Amino acid sequence: MPEPGFAPGALDTDGDPKWITELACADPNHVLHVVRGLDPKAALEVIGAKPHLIQRCELPASKPDDWTSLPGLALGIDPGTSAALLAGSVGGWTFVYDDSGHTDSEAAEALSASGRTAATSVFTINADASMTYFADGEELAWINVDDLTEEDVADFPDELRAAFETAGVVEQDYLEPGDFDYAVTMRATCALAGLTALTIEDLRALPLLGAAFG
């Protein structure tokens, strides 16, 4: 696989998009959902956020400690009590970031209803990394990074294959030849939604919504 086709400086040393790293707490257990053709409020509600808890969200300048996420701080959520969801749109895609992994990893199925395309990337504190990809309510791919091969990528639907080719591989000490690094699904999900050059400054300039969840 090629090197990532992200903007210069857009990835951290682990290969994660920096805008996600800067939102997350240390040792994250988090989820990223993306959907084409659905606005942020509707996406939050489909995922399960209660409508009365959805509010405008302005990201703070910094985190007070390693264990607080920026969305959690913005929403006044104590770490460990519930998840903080953050949603916004770039182009025709909406993203929903879940700082604690409380949302359903199969949310892409509901997000993709009525002809839409959606994907969900999960990364756990145990470095389990996976991704689901749905179109019109149908699962077209489920990816476990531990089992992923270049032959699998070649057989993906065109849009998803292109996203993984853009995601590429970030060389790490733990990788054997032909292995994918554990951040590949977060990069592929971002690539699918056209978020390869997004920065935290760009994020702060967007109209964002947030909600406590769980």
Automatic annotation (TrEMBL):
Q: Which InterPro entries match?
A: DUF6461
Q: Which Pfam families did the record assign?
A: DUF6461
**What is the protein's name according to its record?**
DUF6461 domain-containing protein
Species whose genome carries this gene: Saccharopolyspora ipomoeae
Q: What is the lineage of its organism?
A: Bacteria, Bacillati, Actinomycetota, Actinomycetes, Pseudonocardiales
